[in-house]
């Protein structure tokens, strides 16, 4: 279930809009399984994911000098922290369409922070936490140790365009190796407010998505991306 952690920063307004951009295959997997995929933190493309800034590393070195097992424990922890990434934005993002969907056959889930919290209540195996990502200068800025998910809520400033908010969970208590990630139970109807179709998609693709929703007995609002609206002259 979702657990509120006062040390993790999230928007105060539960109606704050969030997005998840994905291909149709991943979307169908979400609907058919009623489960949301969370990736292992050390499997992300960003090689700095879950690592330390330089000022933090200097402190880590002093800690590990007296406690050599600390770094080994931390490396193992990276394999046990699972993450689901969402985009925090009132509007669609052209960049997110480009990065997270292939060709012109992707879609975006529009949700809210409150809906995400409600949807996560369906999970009973592992606890989930939600936090905003902080973008810092890794050469100059310090990553604090004040929560259990340090440093998985920090990224380099060059990733600021992601405006990321994350669902995080620690699966170390499961006592088994996790390869790529885990799937957690979610309430699909609570999670999804609207579905937006890729701005470059053709009409047949929107009809296909609508037919799939009907056959799967979902009644989400389906919109064509606002980025492809008619030009007014």
From TrEMBL:
Q: What is the lineage of its organism?
A: Bacteria, Pseudomonadati, Bacteroidota, Flavobacteriia, Flavobacteriales
The superkingdom listed in its UniProt entry is: Bacteria
Name the chain's protein: DUF2971 domain-containing protein
């Amino acid at each position: 279930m979702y657990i509120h952690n006062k040390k993790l920063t999230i928007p105060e307004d539960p109606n704050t809009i969030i997005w998840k951009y994905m291909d149709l295959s991943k979307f169908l997997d979400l609907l058919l399984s009623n489960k949301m995929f969370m990736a292992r933190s050390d499997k992300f493309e960003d090689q700095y994911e879950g690592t330390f800034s330089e000022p933090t590393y200097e402190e880590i070195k002093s800690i590990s000098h007296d406690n050599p097992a600390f770094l080994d424990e931390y490396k193992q922890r990276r394999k046990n922290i699972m993450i689901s990434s969402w985009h925090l934005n009132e509007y669609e993002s052209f960049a997110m369409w480009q990065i997270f969907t292939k060709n012109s056959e992707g879609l975006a889930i529009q949700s809210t922070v409150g809906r995400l919290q409600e949807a996560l209540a369906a999970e009973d195996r592992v606890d989930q936490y939600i936090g905003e990502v902080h973008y810092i200068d890794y050469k100059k800025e310090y990553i604090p140790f004040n929560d259990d998910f340090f440093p998985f809520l920090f990224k380099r400033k060059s990733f600021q365009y992601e405006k990321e908010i994350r669902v995080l969970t620690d699966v170390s208590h499961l006592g088994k190796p996790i390869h790529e990630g885990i799937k957690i139970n979610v309430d699909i109807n609570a999670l999804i407010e609207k579905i937006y179709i890729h701005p470059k998609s053709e009409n047949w693709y929107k009809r296909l998505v609508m037919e799939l929703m009907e056959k799967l007995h979902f009644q989400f609002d389906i919109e064509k991306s606002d980025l492809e609206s008619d030009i007014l002259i």
